[in-house]
Amino acid sequence: MKADGWIYYNRAALPTVSPKDEPDTAPVRSGEIWKTDGHPLLARWTTEFDCGCETEWWYVVKDTPFDIAQLKAKRRYEINKGSRFFDVRRISAGDYKNELYLIQVAAFSVYPKKYRPSVDKAGFFAEMESCEDVVFGAFFRETGRLAGYARLSQSWADVVSFSVLKTDPEYEKYAVNAALVEKLLSHYADFLSAGGLICDGERSISHETHFQDYLEKYFGFRKAYCRLHVCLQSEDPVGGEAAVSVQGTARTAGLHSGGTSDQCGDQNGGNLQTGSPPGGLR
User: How many alpha carbons lie under 13 Å from residue 171 in its C-beta half-sphere?
Assistant: First the structure.
């Protein structure tokens, strides 16, 4: 069973609408959402995108063309350094599936053990062979070796999701990350000029990362504040209505509340570790 406008991901029900748009929450209010495929433990969504005031939840976005001249000299140097060492170009993920797999494994090898993922080689190969996303590869000019890649998808006309950036740690000293981001922003310059948005996903709290800070500091990304809503399925919903159960299922679902939560209501200031949708860097 499916609910229109919602998908199941990582034990949670998530809306399929653009971050700019607000979902139809009728399936949550009626309780229908809990009967959908996967049987989610929670539903989560955002409203009031780019509300103009600081909240405890946000998306990291780029909505203006990148202008390197606006940066401080040290940051310009770092980006230009990446361009000197790497030839960044669009690639077919299927054609480079083995190289991309090795990069993925190398990138994960430096993650802290407490959340270091493993990579299923066969599954990764299958995903790359069917990948229709825009993929950029960074080739080390001296050897021609593929040292990193970025993957972007466009599920909505005016929003591009910056979903993956992975690099071999051995090449980070040559500014491979900067080379990749500069190239993809150049590729999407006209899209940004026409009012498009590149979204790096929501606030990252499921693991330690400074990448979103890096995007803001070096490439002019910014926080688009919004309101986060979380609804947890109770173990014994009353009258078929969706209900919040802060004890029990909340912990099982990996949702650790650091703020307040009302009945199927708002969650600002929490520590959400479940249901992070595709569209943010991992």
Answer: 29
pLDDT for 194:
97
- Residue numbers in the chain where pLDDT is lower than 70: 206-209, 235-282
Please calculate the CA angle 246-250-251 and round it to the nearest 5 degrees.
120
What pLDDT does residue 84 have? 98
Contact 154, 111 (CB under 8 A): no
Asked whether the CA dihedral 44, 48, 50, 55 is positive or negative, the reply is negative
The predicted structure's pLDDT at residue 258 = 31
Give the residue carrying structure tokens 């709290």. 205
Q: Which residue has the tokens 């770092």?
A: 78
